[in-house]
Amino acid sequence: MNTETLLKVNHLKAYIPSSKGEIKPVNDISFSIKKGEIVALVGESGSGKSVSSLSIMGLNAGAIKYRPDSSILFEGQDLLKLKEKELRKIRGNDIAMIFQDPMSSLNPVHPIGRQIAESIVLHKKVSYKEAKKTALDLLNKVGIPDAERRLNDYPHQLSGGMRQRAMIAIALACNPKLLIADEPTTALDVTIQSQILNLLRDLQKEFGISILLITHDLGVVAETADRVLVMYCGQIVEEGTVEEIFENPQHPYTKGLMDSIPSLYGPSKEILDAIPGVVPNPLELPNGCNFVTRCAFATEKCYEVSPVLEKHSSGTRVSCWNPLTKEALSENDRESAVIVT
Amino acid sequence: MFLKFLLRRLLYVIPMLLITTLIVFSLILLIPGDPVLAMLGDSATHEKVEELRRQLGLDQPVMLQYFHWLNNAIHGDLGRSIFTGQLVDEALMQTLFVTMQLVVVGMIFSIVGGLFFAITSIYFPNSWMDYVARFFGTLGTAIPNFLVAMVLIIFFSLKLNWVPATGFTSIVHEPVSFLQQIILPGFSLSLAGIAVITRHLRSSLMETMDADYVRTAYSKGVSRYQAIFKHSLQNAMLPVVTTIGLLFGTMLGATVVVETIFAIPGMGQLVVNAIGQRDFTIVQGVVLVMIVMVIVINFITDIVYALLDPRIEY
């Protein structure tokens, strides 16, 4: 794998000034994506994963501001400092995005061929006719049967899976270096989900693009990603390779997310282990660790001092005062008589 | 498929015409006053009144009168004016073209003005343009058209003397004086329309600008201008097309007032005079034409809708 860094997010801090105080949807996160790497950003709703990804695209709502020391370096260029006009040249060309709901993310009044070609005409010096030809190739590539006819179809004439394939075709139109996939399979059937994930992985192999995969579904992560970032309350709480995270989740939150997946193997659980409590109100975050109110392992220190993301023995980064170890995990599992494979 | 839709549509028209003409026929009879007395004056003798009434067929039962009129109308004979004896279709032809010119100008003003205000208001949110558009959107619906007409006449005709206060020249005779004379009535007719389209399109645009597919468009690298004109507007126009279609009917009704104020010899004036004289046949004729026009416009609205939205099939 290429080790060159494509995207580097440094101390990204996004905030929304409001009359009741400041809301910080993203509170100081740093990570990087290498060329050809698939990185998964995992978290619950409201953890800040969508705001993070939209920051890269420069597509956040106007109310969201960034602290001056935040930077998002894409091939060395700070995207946060770019003017709208310069950003437009990057959007859809170098960085493309696919969205959660293919039902509403395609324009209902334009044929899909036109929607793909639009992207090409915007960035490449080609005629509309040539762009249409490229669009046809793309539809074939993303596995839409009878592509020639589909080119003139409107989104409502396509099934959900086909629409998401068309969305991917739009995103790939200009051979982007980075593809941001914001919950690309959430709105789809399970069978279609794995098809789309396979497609993304195949395309990544074929074109060598980097993918930032945003999801709350750890199953999706296990199937697709190389590296995982776990987000909670606008911060990254754990980072590691897929193997590391799945074998040895060190943050209690990551562990909680794992436990809430129904297991296909081993004895089936009658009740899934849910993480107790709810995500805290962004205006009333606890003093110490953000997760402290829901954590079973919290100590006094956790209530007072916020942990920082630190590199731990295994090579993963985790932001926790009492990271779980493999031994502690198995012991804990025995206690609760729950077997997690 | 489309032909089937067309035929089904035409079938709807028949009961609609029957019901509306019957309603109008009965409504006129409910208004106090007698066309015969209006023609002969108060001093006419009883015999003379009876005789004229028989001549005009007004002594027959109402239902019979209606069926008589209906039968003739189906055969293309709308009868003669009770008052002047002029053929009704002739009177309609003379005035319809005048009214159509006025309404078309009013519609053009409304659509162009409405689109302009709504789009600038969305393109420059919270700018002074936005506030002007919002203020206008409320003001336009609140001010009655006769008041607008009179203020316009006082200001532009009497004070500034830019355009004549009243009168009408057909566009086919003298386009220049047509334009001069149509501006004030056209504007008074369209003020409410501009306001309605501005408000409706503005809120519709606000919704579509936040739609997922517009975000997709931005993610492709389109500018704000392209996002509005290529992605948002066509979707936002869908509900507004219905409003524009309805506006046509409202405007047709409003010509009655505007034509009277600006002394335009159109159908509005024709029907106002006819009602005053209890001239049933003219009133019936005008109503018939107006209904047909509204039905035609509804039909055009449906076609435009299908053109804008590929999801609609007939």
From TrEMBL, chain A:
Compartments where located: Cell membrane
Protein name stated in the entry: ABC transporter ATP-binding protein
A Pfam family it matches: oligo_HPY
NCBIfam families cross-referenced by the UniProt entry: oligo_HPY
Domain ABC transporter, first and last residues per copy: 7-258
GO BP term, example: peptide transport
Record-linked PANTHER family: DIPEPTIDE TRANSPORT ATP-BINDING PROTEIN DPPD, OLIGOPEPTIDE TRANSPORT ATP-BINDING PROTEIN APPD
InterPro entries: AAA+_ATPase, ABC_Ni/Peptide_Import, ABC_transporter-like_ATP-bd, ABC_transporter-like_CS, Oligopep_ABC_C, P-loop_NTPase
Matching Gene3D superfamilies: P-loop containing nucleotide triphosphate hydrolases
Family according to the record: Belongs to the ABC transporter superfamily.
Matching SMART domains: AAA (SM00382)
GO cellular component annotations of the record: plasma membrane
MF terms (GO), sorted A to Z: ATP binding; ATP hydrolysis activity
Tagged with keyword Mitochondrion: no
From TrEMBL, chain B:
Chain segments annotated as transmembrane: 12-31, 102-124, 136-158, 178-197, 236-262, 282-308
Hydrolase found in the keyword field: no
Principal place of residence: membrane
Keyword Membrane: yes
Keywords: Cell membrane, Membrane, Transmembrane, Transmembrane helix, Transport
Listed PANTHER family: DIPEPTIDE TRANSPORT SYSTEM PERMEASE PROTEIN DPPB-RELATED (PTHR43163:SF6)
Protein name: ABC transporter permease
Source organism: Peribacillus glennii
